[in-house]
Amino acid sequence: MNRKENNLRETAVTADARRAAAVETALARLDLPAKVALLAGADMWSLPADEEIGLGRLVMSDGPAGVRGEQWTPDDPSVALPSPTALAATWDLDLVRRAGRLLAQEARRKGAHVVLAPTVNLHRSPLGGRHFECYSEDPLLTGEIGAALVSGVQDGGVGTTPKHFVANDSETDRYTVDVRVDERTLRELYLAPFEAIVKKAHPWGLMAAYNAVNGPTMSEHTELNTTVLREEWGFDGILVSDWTGARDTVRAALGGLDIAMPGPATVYGEHLVRAVHEGLVPETVVDDMARRVLRLAARVGLLAGAPAAVPAADLPAPIDGEALVRELAARSFVLLRNEGGVLPLDPAPASLALLGAAAAEPRIGGGGSAQVFPTALVTPLDGLRTALGDRTRLVHAVGADPRTFLPPAAFPCRAELRGAEDSLGATALADGGVRWLGALPGGVPFEDLGEVRLTGTLTAGAAGRHQLAVRGVGRFRLEADGQVLFDGLLHAEGEDPAAAFLNPPERRVELDLAEGRQVAVTLTYTMPEAGDFAGFGLVSFTLGHAEPAPSAEELIEQAVAAARDAEVAVVVVGTTEEVESEGVDRAGLRLPGRQDELVARVAAANPRTVVVVNAGAPVLMPWREDVAAVLLGWFPGQQAGEALADVLLGTVEPAGRLPTTWPAEEADSPVREVTPTDGRLDYSEGLFTGYRAWQRRAGAAPAYWFGVGQGYTAWSYESLEARLLDGTADALAEVTVRLRNTGERPGREVVQVYLATDGSDRSRPDRQLAGFAVVEAAPGAVATARITVPRRAVESWDTAARAWRVNPGVHTVEAGRSAGDRPLAIALVVPQD
Ligand code: BGC
Fold first, then answer.
1. Is the torsion defined by CA of 549, 553, 559, 564 positive or negative?
2. In CA terms, which of 307, 517, 601, 636 is 20 to 30 Å from 167?
3. Is 618 helix (H, G, I), strand (E, B) or coil?
4. CA 121, CA 697: separation in Å to the nearest integer?
5. Total structural domains in the chain?
6. Is 602 found in the same domain as 719?
7. Looking at ligand 1, which atom is closest to the CA of residue 164?
8. Tell me, what's the pLDDT at 12?
């Protein structure tokens, strides 16, 4: 260690000591009610201030793909990053760390101190509804990407809460499901990313999952929250409940849960004070909980007398958010097929047919709490139009519109907030969507609100049958053109308290209008009785509208005609908000609507058909061998169109690699069961999810293996060396891979190292990812990847001994481009511990 590093280290130690002292001083000044007050939300997103001890109000905010802040309105937009699956697809830890720094910058701009991210549950099944929000099927990749994101956010002096601890890998009955998973699988798969993140990146928080694991619900799971997380791994941050996830005062306090969110009504507060007085919870437990909250406050600079973990002078330089989002997206795109080098389109074609509803209205992120209103939106149509300019005749046709719910009415509306009798205020809305979470416009208290009256004027753009829709949960009355078109109750499915905004039902009505006709539309929403949505200060509903549209068949015919007339056809297909969202699992992997038919018919009309997939998780692509190119564009964030143009035209190489195996058929997926039986979801497949399961299937292969992705050049893997490292540290071996760019363009490659067993112990997966590195090289040049393989790669969890155990003997180090393509191999003999 040189002198400068030594000084830095000393400064950090001193700062830690000063922070710890300030925390103890503050704690000593608090009586029991004051300590307890720190442990529960004051409102939807914040913990209360305490002026007496110089403690500021601490704000938490979602989330993994952009920082929303305390408001959820288009008036307060956020930089919308690509979906977490896209971040993982970069396999690029420096880039992900920069994404974390951007989240911190956004959090600071929005007055938030903790970002409720990253989501590091695993891709156990492609049917998991929140798949887009997690990183990978592989625990090592998830842990590395998660640690890089946490480090990036915390570099910016903002806290994180990797979530949801643990085994929240699907959404069906997420509040109540009891995940049954054997201890070895829990350790080797589902806990592993959390462990890696805690040990590498030291997050200042963690979020407990809603579900139970082998009996106890996670907000009360003493063994995992205290014994494993705190005592074994050394976690010193706060454990916060998922929203409304704390259910029992005594069990949560004794089970290791520090903070119950949201507030003000929680199981802590006066209930916890009483439990201490009754001797059910020792006051020392409350002291520990409060100490951890104060430590967090100190780290983010909210406790007087305590130095923030990142002094203002050390904050990272400002980041250009839009430029970084564009770079992240382009780097995440995975080129799955490129017949005859149809891509890049260089030189630009004279004519291009851009097809698909998502070409003009892309999905930039998945649904649910990870959603933010973007600061800007560049659609594929905008992006290509700008990049191609006058060189190319660009035609767009919808082709197929997979959305099953009407979009919010595209005319301005006025929302009037009304009390029992009178008006409490009003606000202007850009369209027919109302979404107020945590706070109401004008600061109107939730308890005063009786109804919301939404009014607007619909001007018929075309003559014919217009559709209007009400979407939400509760009592609605829709009037248009002087008639009452709907008056009734819409019910949520299931018990999820967030269902009203995650997965609300829709009711449609029709109205025949002449072109240009103007009609007044009023939608009145009556607030439910108090208690119906306990814990969630939420008003969310939509007035939908659709103009008369061509039939589905006419839409496809228009697209096919456009494709036939163009040099190149680019079809953007994807999932919808209903398909990929928090709160629900997927019913299937097929692309919704008639998109498969659209692709097949366009491909038959134009041999240069490029399909861009706008989805956060696997979809089936029955046409994948019949088109010239397939580019997986994920949910690319707000600069979607710029990134797409960069990659299609070859300014940037698509450098993404699949973080999860994509099946060819749904029935092939190793794990399809995401629905609990009698309240239990059995992870009976054990360690064999994703590629671990696929490699056990003789003769069968997925559509695309974990790790797959092409660039615009070619590589030859030339040599591999592996050297055991001495000692008992976490690093086992250093692997060196040399590879040559044998193509004609500069390239970027993700070198992957797998460790294979000798096959004698069938309880262990045949091979697992053990490390990776991103390299770049000019045409003809050699790149060298140096990859450290962690000791954990040769260890198994020994359930009887409750300890990690090295598997000694011969292992094979393999290097290559995916779990299915590993051209180099070398033996590594691992000694007994
Ligand atoms: C989600 C969390 C999120 C929280 C706050 C919950 O429903 O599961 O991931 O952070 O809401 O929005």
1. negative
2. 636
3. coil
4. 25
5. 4
6. no
7. 9
8. 74
Residue 710 lies in a domain: no
Q: By alpha-carbon position, which residue is closest to atom 7 of ligand 1?
A: 243
Last residue within a domain, chosen from 277, 308, 339 = 308
Q: Are 46 and 59 in contact (CB under 8 A)?
A: yes
Does the beta carbon of 476 sit less than 6 angstroms from any atom of ligand 1?
no
Closest CA to 259 of 56, 58, 436: 58
Tell me, using a 6 A CB cutoff, whether residue 242 lines ligand 1. yes
> Is the pLDDT confidence value at 700 over 90?
no
Tell me, yes or no, whether 605 and 486 share the same domain. no
Asked if residue 62 has its Cβ within 6 Å of ligand 1, the reply is yes
Q: Which helix (H) or strand (E) holds 358?
A: helix 357-360
For 560, the 3-state DSSP assignment is helix
CA torsion 151-152-153-158 (nearest 10°) is 70
Q: Which one of 206, 241, 243 would you pick to mutate in the ligand 1 pocket, going by the greatest count of ligand atoms within 8 A of its CB? A: 243
Final residue in a domain of this structure, among 641, 663, 694: 694
Tell me: do 627 and 763 sit in the same domain.
no
| Interval 251-275 mean pLDDT | 97
Residue 116 beta carbon below 6 angstroms from any ligand 1 atom: yes
Cα-to-chain-centroid distance, residue 442: 31
- Token reading at 476: 């609605």
SS3 assignment, position 306 = coil
For residue 417, give the CATH number of its domain. Answer: 2.60.120.260
**153 CA distance to ligand 1 centroid (A)?**
18
Q: What is the CATH number of the domain that holds 819?
A: 2.60.40.10
* Active site (catalytic) residues: 242
pLDDT digit string, tens, across residues 650-688: 999 999 999 999 999 999 999 999 999 999 999 999 999
Average pLDDT, stretch 333-352? 97
- Claim to verify: residue 769 and residue 741 sit in the same structural domain: yes
Q: Is 824 found in the same domain as 725?
A: yes
Ligand 1 atom closest to 174 (CA): 8
**Do 687 and 721 lie in a common domain?**
no
Distance separating alpha carbons of residues 635 and 66, to the nearest angstrom = 13
**Which pLDDT score is estimated for 534?**
46
Q: Does residue 512 sit in the same domain as residue 637?
A: no
Nearest residue (CA) to ligand 1, atom 3:
369
Ligand 1 and 63: CB distance under 6 A? yes
Instruction: Find out whether the beta carbon of 163 lies less than 6 Å from any atom of ligand 1.
Output: yes
Q: Region 795-809: what's the mean pLDDT?
A: 96
CATH classification at residue 51: 3.20.20.300
Q: Are residues 604 and 666 in the same domain?
A: yes
Ligand 1 mean position, distance from CA 261 (Å): 10
Q: What is the CATH number of the domain that holds 602?
A: 3.40.50.1700
As beta bridge partners, residue 581 has 367
Residue 263 CB neighbours (<10 A): 21
> Does residue 318 sit within a domain?
no
Per-residue pLDDT at 533: 43
Helices (H) and strands (E) in the chain, counts: 19, 34
pTM of the model: 0.95
Distance (Å, whole) CA 140 – CA 707: 13
Spatial distance between the Cα atoms of 778 and 733, rounded to a whole number of angstroms: 28
Of the listed ranges 26-40, 202-216, 418-432, 591-605, the least confidently predicted one is: 418-432
Residue 750: pLDDT band with limits 50, 70, 90: very high
Does residue 18 belong to any structural domain of this protein?
yes
Residue nearest to atom 5 of ligand 1 (CA): 243
Beta bridge partners of 374: 78
Tokens for 66, please give them.
């952009």
Structural domain of 741: 715-830
Q: How does strand 238-240 pair with strand 205-207?
A: parallel
The answer to whether 722 touches 824, Cβ cutoff 8 Å, is no
Closest of 306, 316, 314, 264 to residue 56, by C-alpha: 306
